[in-house]
Amino acid sequence: MNVTKFLDQADSVRVGIVESDQLLPLQLGENYSTLAELLATENPSTAIRSLVTDAPLSIDDTIRWLPPIDNQEVWAAGVTYKRSQTARMEESEAAASCYDRVYQADRPELFFKATPHRVSGHKQPLRIRSDATWNVPEPEITLVLNPQFKIIGLTVGNDMSSRDIEGENPLYLPQAKCYDQCAGLGPWITLFDTLPAMNELHVDLKINRDGQIIFDQQTSGAEMARSFEDLVGWLSRDNSMPSGAFLMTGTGIVPSNDFTLQPGDLVHISIAGIGTLSNPIVQA
């Protein structure tokens, strides 16, 4: 089941089910007032199916998608793919040993990525910092966690990164990662009773500039050095997420060092079995 958020014709925030080429708006009531509350139930799919739906909408360019998040926290993991380890080491000689060690360590790199107001949904803009010169998208399989840290679904994530800021000093990581419009989630959450195997999750990144594809690369969860369960286990240590959380699990696609995003670029991230998240790039 795919569940999402969108704006209706009256500019009201709505929750809906995506089925094939239709969007079925849900009627939320006394029992559930938000998507987060539905995701926190024992069986989200059953809870969602229990709700009445309005007349279906055809999915076309008139749909105004929102990120499928309410008040959950967004976290991210780093150096979970061999390619990302290499790329992070290339950013800075001073940081190289840190990233090499964390790739082999028991404890992963986990960092806070975004509050909900910093998250963009499908077709909404993502930002490159005005004080950065080397900016890249990071396509990531993103786990949807309920308040008990159970993985209930997956979505597509874009962990935007200012590589020059982080490369200057690893202590600048929060500034390189967390700012307005720094994270993309969507276009919906795909709920699972049983998660697909990691090697079945194929990730595709395409970047379009001036009508031409200037970057096209693929990877899969099979290239990850850590399991989803391992990452969630570390995130949940001495931690609580009363509303649940999203956890971006790292990237295995890193553009070459001479590539940087530009305003007007269109970034398309597809994950097989989930969907495609598309975002235009802007700069302050």
Gist of the model:
The protein folds into two domains: 65 residues; 211 residues, Fumarylacetoacetate hydrolase, domain 2, CATH 3.90.850.
Tell me about this structure.
The protein has two domains: 2-66; 73-283, Fumarylacetoacetate hydrolase, domain 2 (Alpha-Beta Complex). It is of the alpha+beta class. The chain is globular and about 55 Å long. It contains seven helices and 19 strands. Helix 3 runs antiparallel to helix 4 (93-104). The model has no long low-confidence stretch (mean pLDDT 93). The chain has helices at 35-39, 44-49, 82-91, 93-104, 163-168, 173-177, 228-235, and strands spanning 2-7, 13-19, 22-25, 57-58, 64-66, 73-78, 109-114, 119-120, 126-128, 135-136, 139-145, 151-159, 161-162, 183-191, 202-209, 212-220, 245-248, 266-271, 275-283. Strands 1, 2, 3, 4, 5, 6, 7, 8, 11, 12, 14 and 17 form a twelve-stranded mixed sheet that branches. It has a five-stranded mixed sheet with strand order 9-19-18-15-16, with no helix packed on it.
Unreliable parts: none
Q: What's the average pLDDT?
A: 93
Question: End-to-end distance, in Å?
Answer: 37 Å
Strand content bin: 35-45%
The biggest beta sheet, please?
12 strands, mixed
Round the Cα radius of gyration to an integer and report it. 18 Å
* Assembly status: single chain
Number of domains: 2
The number of helical elements comes to: 7
